[in-house]
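--- STAGE predict ---
source: upstream dedup step, 1 unique chain passed
mode: sequence only
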Amino acid sequence: MRALSIRQPWASLVVLGLKDIENRTWVTHERGTILVHASKGMTRIEYEDAIEFAVEAIRADPRHAGKKETTTLRALGFAIEDLQRGGIIGQVDIVDCVRASAAPWYMGNVGFVLANAKPLPFRSLRGALRFFEVPA
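--- STAGE serialize ---
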């Protein structure tokens, strides 16, 4: 199966179904289920900026209107010390690749449209750039 490395906390937001667009600078023709690999690297500043952005995106996302995620990201395991890194944490379907979107998660260039996110038990694994094959 193929995987894509995503930095935390974005990777966890994806596998919990909160983030439905993965932003990249390159186009993909990949469709279907991929594994989500949580990259090892993450600075405190990256974490804090991502959490701030995520709270605003969740508030702006009509799929989550009225839910409590905006105030409970840390309770959902989003404390910096709780985020799993350096391995597979879930799976998601890539259903489209777009160059524009009104979704609050879209930040420009290219967006992989995601659906059917599912967390999986953590599996330690070295990541790679772009899509990469995961041994069975």
